[in-house]
Amino acid sequence: MSSRRIAVIEAWFTSPSQAGKHRGYSASDVALHRDAGELTVDNTMARRLRHLLAEHTKAGTCITSLGVVDSTSLHAATEEGLVCAYVSGAALSFADVGRTDPSADLSDYLPSAVADKVNSMYRAQLARDRLNRGLAQRGFKCTDPMIPLIADCDSGYGLHTSVMKAVKLLVEAGTAGLHIDDMLSGSKRFDKVDGVGGVLVPLSEHKRRLVAAQLQLDIMGSECVLINRTDAIHSTHITSTIDPADRAFILGSPIPSLPSYASLRTSAERTAWRAAAQLCSIDEATARAAEAAGDLDLLQKYNAQVGSLCAGDAKRLALRLGIKVEWDCDIARTYQGWYPYRGCIESSLDRMKRTSHLFDVVWYCAISYLASEAEFFAKELQAASPGKWMMFNTTQASRARVKDIPPAELERIPHTLGRLGYSLNIMPLAGQVIHALGSARGSKAVLQGGLAAFIEEIAGPAEDEAEGRPLVAQWHPNFGSIADSVMDIIGTGE
Ligand SMILES: C[C@](O)(C(=O)O)[C@H](CC(=O)O)C(=O)O
Ligand SMILES: [Mg+2]
């Protein structure tokens, strides 16, 4: 039966993994873009990920997961009990970004870089799975290597067609879940140097990314889990004021005598400007102006009519009603043209609530771990979208970032998150740090003690720890056995 038949696509829309999503387009829209022939996507791993998320949400438990950097560490972590793995754009961009140069996590590598990494890991999982069949026959205890891979699709690398192409590459590569972020591509920074942290795109643009991603999944018939990540909590700017949904968080200055921010030349001038600007939203500026003039009835009219207006139109409404509001967000733009934005947990929540019909999982991306914030976020979100799958991460986890958290609370994180309804806690860069540390420790021993130290300190203990499981050190003969078994089937050619 042709995969482009409307009835087939309508059945897909109402299938168990898809039924909860809202689509603003029809089956014939999808049909128009489906390839000729049968669908070729294998949904096994996506379904495993869905099953994991559903089961853990139900049980009130939270999976701890790592970003892994290659097939060897993926396999080793799987042997130790990892049930799903993350493929991090940051980890790749720092060290291993394929055909382009490493740099900061700026989404400036080829969009295929993460997909290539996923594909190499997925192929290694499949090969490992084939190998295990022979190893099990030879008495080894084998762990199922097929754990779902969640891939970083960053901000989608551009507008809607770029998002669709990136999603297609990831799905074809074997990804089981992917996330799309709401930042301006390439603008990520967490340090807030010179007042700039994350830079968001308007919510409407982010929605278009999510819809483009889902459309691509529909075109492919992929059950890949779509994860919505917002960086609003630590963002300081936004590229445009066009979306009314962002109005409450877009900031301008009510002080008319200020020079424009973009005209300032030094960081010291900019710091002083920010201290003097009394940045606030148009709604706050309007309320203050009306209250100061005793125009409470005008304020009431403003509040009744402002609902669906963007910041600029809201200001025009206030002036039209006769409220003498001074508020300028253009004066506050950076030299790149970005507007100040009040990044906070409320803005993150607001973005998630307004888009929750478009994706499978909410990613609450925190700069540090704060149980009270994780709880506030979870409760508010679940009140608006009961049962929505949620995941959590602490970006750039380091001693400094968690220094104020009591050790007992840190240890309780998986328990606390599970109780709050988060089913997945990802530590994106942990795999890279583990990789580096293991390599440093092992190399130090071998460089100092040669073969004797390698056997004594590395290979020997690895054999002991394997306890009947196949070892990385035995992959050479083990993979050889695949070639032998194929040769048995092919025969001698006589
Ligand atoms: C999750 C993340 O997108 C990644 O690429 O791993 C990064 C990780 C980090 O910088 O710690 C992010 O949180 O933006
Ligand atoms: Mg990333």
UniProtKB/TrEMBL annotation:
Task: Write the Enzyme Commission number(s) for this entry.
Answer: 4.1.3.30
Q: Which UniProt keywords apply?
A: Lyase, Magnesium, Metal-binding
Leader peptide range in chain numbering: none
Which cofactors are named for this entry?
A: Mg(2+)
User: Which residue ranges run through the membrane?
Assistant: none
List ligand-binding residues for Mg(2+). Answer: D152
Q: Which GO terms describe its molecular function?
A: isocitrate lyase activity; metal ion binding; methylisocitrate lyase activity
Q: Which Pfam families match?
A: ICL
**Cofactor-binding details, from the entry:** Can also use Mn(2+) ion.
Report if keyword Metal-binding is assigned. yes
Q: Its GO biological process terms?
A: carboxylic acid metabolic process
Reactions catalysed: (2S,3R)-3-hydroxybutane-1,2,3-tricarboxylate = pyruvate + succinate
Q: Which PANTHER family match?
A: BIFUNCTIONAL GLYOXYLATE CYCLE PROTEIN (PTHR21631:SF3), ISOCITRATE LYASE/MALATE SYNTHASE (PTHR21631)
What the record says about family reads: Belongs to the isocitrate lyase/PEP mutase superfamily. Isocitrate lyase family.
Q: Specify the protein name.
A: methylisocitrate lyase
Q: State the organism of origin.
A: Dioszegia hungarica
